[in-house]
Specification:
The complex is a heterodimer. By secondary structure, chain A is an alpha/beta fold. Chain A has a single domain (6-189), classed as Aconitase, domain 4. Chain A contains 8 helices and 7 strands, in the order E-H-H-E-H-E-H-E-H-E-E-E-H-H-H. Chain A has helices spanning 21-24, 44-47, 85-93, 105-112, 123-131, 160-168, 172-177, 180-189, and strands spanning 6-14, 70-73, 97-100, 117-120, 136-140, 145-147, 153-155. In chain A, strands 4-3-2-1-5-6-7 form a 7-stranded mixed β-sheet. In chain A, strand 5 and strand 6 (145-147) form a beta hairpin. By secondary structure, chain B is α/β, with parallel strands linked by helices. Chain B contains 17 helices and 19 strands. In chain B, strands 5-4-3-6-7 form a 5-stranded parallel β-sheet. A 5-stranded parallel β-sheet of chain B has the order 17-16-15-18-19. A 4-stranded parallel β-sheet of chain B has the order 11-10-9-12. In chain B, strand 13 and strand 14 form a beta hairpin. In chain B, helix 14 (352-362) packs across helix 16 and helix 14 packs parallel to helix 17 (447-456). Chain B is globular and about 55 Å long. The chains are: A alpha/beta, B alpha/beta. Chains A and B meet through helix 4, helix 6, helix 7 and helix 8 of A and helix 2, helix 4, helix 6 and helix 12 of B.
Chain lengths: 191, 467
């Protein structure tokens, strides 16, 4: 994985609460056996009508959404299933970070393992971001802060080890494999 | 000695390395369940790094999500219609062969929905840590196991190391006093709990379901409750094991036998929250006041008693969007609404007692004209038992379709779909937009409510059919 230090981008806003993983990527696309190419199916039933034509009124189809790498969404983003296809689809689409007041547990875990930053912020900042789509933000992972256009920096929580891995491009599996002596001891003690 | 919760006991017994400020705990996993949809990329990772499955004896695979339920497709008399699903089936067969993992494949008599067969085979046991690349892994918590869903990267971690990196979650006690009234099921109870705490009310927590109403539940019912913990945002839900649990497990394929059984039961008796142990949060509920529940919106927290009306929420754009999708208006009465599809099945309500409940309503009756009713057993074993007990005949005589086991219409990826704009009363766990098919409108309810809808062609109070 490539190290991540900061992300700078304009935002795109999906103001709905409880956006579930079936909206992010519907189950009918989960019969794939690879991780690649899922971006074209991200939010597919919101992006396209039944003929496959883009819905002009959907925010991701508007010209100003093009190139935005930061998604601001309503509370409890990513609820529902454990499908890692959800962060795979968002990353392949071009998102690098998701901001909300609450992000579902499994989705957050899956995102951190793939370099999609799940950023939980306070309600006041969140409300401002919902009301100001398209603003330029700077996410600094080193200091775990979200830089707003007026220069203020809002801190966000991020699990220490996940942050370390993301900053250094380290794969968590490598760390787990290094624990093999401890794992063997555990297995012998619990055989 | 410190008083501990059930969760704390299981967690502490599985710490290979405790957590620090800098690193999460290394948590040992006793049982890893695998299915065809969330494992292919994990096996690819192992292959690319030259890794093996560390403990094939702690890994068990089956296929359920994308597999067909039509017997001709299941048993190879005709090709599987969804071609990409057929490829996933082949891929899992190849991966299990290559890595030495036991697979209960398409033709196996022990196949079924992963969360149904784990308990059925006795692989699910009190005090175990159990994971699967599926959010309804919480089901296994009904046995006092710590069981939760993981993503595919973590499936790879467990395959390679039998461990996961985990931060310790918080604890939430859901205390359910009293007893469920007649005609009110475990499904109604969990829907009421989700309605009360909300779809993110359990985020960051492990739930322990407690109290007299929980203790009175059968294992099937406890599984229904724990199954939907994730619909309240909690990755895991647990119930302390007791004599009901032990009686269920005794004699099953993977359960300890002989002397090992007595020893195991003695240990399992300690798996309960000590008096005085503290939870981070406590929520109380009175089971005696509950009614049959039904959802009206596009997440499981949008739920009301069946005699209720669709809530009106002026100035709530998300609520309005949800109701527009559902084709409902604030103030609408739910009873009497016509439905086009009824689905009984899934890891939530596809067990034998669920089928028995549906059969009580359907016995000697006919499915209403214009209603498609699909009844799908949770496993092949349940299918055989339902046929032996005459349930399948009740269903087919009524005009319902009776299928091979699988996730079926719970998740629109195996060919079993609800049509665009159709209303489906479904015993599954998610009513998200498009979950059962593009444009499908799902109303989650119990098997009794689903069967009552099949008979009347409308949303109906199941208690009138259970007298």
């Amino acid at each position: 994985m490539q190290p991540i230090r900061h992300i700078e981008s304009r935002t795109v806003v999906l103001p709905y609460t409880n956006i579930d993983t079936d909206q992010i990527i519907p189950a009918r696309f989960l019969t794939t056996t690879t991780k690649e190419g899922l971006g074209k199916q991200a939010f597919t039933d919101w992006r396209y009508d039944s003929t496959g034509a883009p819905r002009a009124d959907f925010v991701l189809n508007r010209p100003e959404a093009s190139g935005c790498a930061i998604l601001v969404a309503g509370r409890n983003f990513g609820c529902g299933s454990s499908r890692e296809h959800a962060p795979w689809a968002l990353l392949d689409y071009g998102f690098r970070a998701v901001i909300s007041t609450e992000i579902a547990d499994i989705f957050r875990n899956n995102s951190l393992k793939n370099g999609l930053l799940p950023i939980v912020i306070d309600e006041t900042t969140h409300r401002w971001l919902l009301e100001h789509p398209g603003v330029q933000l700077r996410i600094d992972l080193e200091s775990a802060t979200l830089g707003l256009p007026d220069g203020t920096a809002v801190e966000f929580p991020i699990e220490a080890f996940a942050r370390y891995c993301l900053l250094n491009g380290i794969d968590e599996l490598g760390f787990l494999l290094q624990q093999s002596a401890a794992i063997e001891r555990y297995e012998q003690a619990h055989a | 000695m410190n008083a501990k919760t059930l969760f704390e006991k299981v967690w502490e017994q599985h710490q290979v390395v405790p957590e620090t400020a800098d690193t999460p705990a290394v948590l040992y996993i006793d049982l890893h369940l695998i299915h065809e949809v969330t494992s292919p990329q994990a096996f690819s990772l192992l292959r690319s790094q030259g890794l093996k499955v560390r403990r094939t004896d702690r890994t068990l695979a089956t296929m359920d999500h994308s597999t067909p339920t039509d017997p001709n497709e299941v048993f190879g008399r005709v090709p599987i219609k969804v071609e990409s699903a057929a490829r996933q089936v082949k891929e899992l067969e190849k991966n299990c062969r290559e890595f030495g993992v036991e697979l209960l494949g398409l033709g196996s008599e022990q196949r079924g929905i992963v969360h149904v067969i784990g308990p059925e085979l006795g692989a699910t046991q009190p005090g175990k840590t159990i994971v699967c690349g599926d959010s309804h892994t919480a089901t296994h918590g009904a046995f006092g196991a710590l069981a939760f869903g993981i993503g595919t990267t973590e499936v790879g971690h467990v395959l390679a190391t039998q461990c996961l990196l985990q931060r310790r979650p918080k604890t939430l006690a859901v205390e359910v006093a009293g007893q469920l009234p007649a005609g009110v099921t475990a499904k109604d109870l969990i829907l009421a709990i989700i309605g009360k705490i909300g779809v993110s009310g359990g985020t960051g927590h492990v739930i322990e379901y407690r109290g007299s109403a929980i203790e009175a539940l059968s294992m099937d019912e406890r599984m229904t409750v724990c199954n939907m913990s994730i619909e309240a945002g909690a990755r895991a839900g647990m119930i302390a094991p007791d004599d009901t649990t032990f009686a269920y497990l005794q004699g099953r394929r993977f359960a300890p036998q002989g002397e090992a059984w007595s020893k195991a039961v003695a240990g399992w008796h300690n798996l309960k929250t000590d008096p005085g142990a503290r939870f981070d949060r406590v929520v109380d509920l009175d089971a005696g006041k509950l009614e049959p529940m039904i959802t009206y919106g596009t997440h499981p927290g949008m739920v009301v008693p069946i005699s209720g009306t669709v809530p009106a929420r002026a100035d709530d754009a998300v609520h309005a969007k949800s109701l527009a999708y559902m084709g409902l208006n604030g103030g609408d009465k739910l009873i009497g609404k016509p439905v086009q599809v009824v689905f009984v099945g899934s890891c939530t309500n596809g067990r034998l007692s669920d089928l028995e409940l549906a059969a009580r309503v359907l016995k000697g009756k006919k499915v209403a004209p214009g209603v498609r009713t699909l009844i799908v057993p949770g496993s092949q074993q349940i299918k055989r038992e339902a046929e032996a007990r005459g349930l399948a005949k009740i269903f087919t005589d009524a005009g319902a379709e009776w299928r091979e086991s699988g996730c079926s219409m719970c998740i629109g990826m195996n060919g079993d779909l609800v049509g665009k704009g159709q209303y489906a009363v479904s015993t599954s766990n998610r009513n998200f937009e498009g979950r059962q098919g593009t444009g499908a409108r799902t109303l989650l309810a119990s098997p009794a409510t689903a069967a009552a809808a099949a008979v009347t062609g409308r949303i109906a109070d199941p208690r009138e059919f259970l007298a």
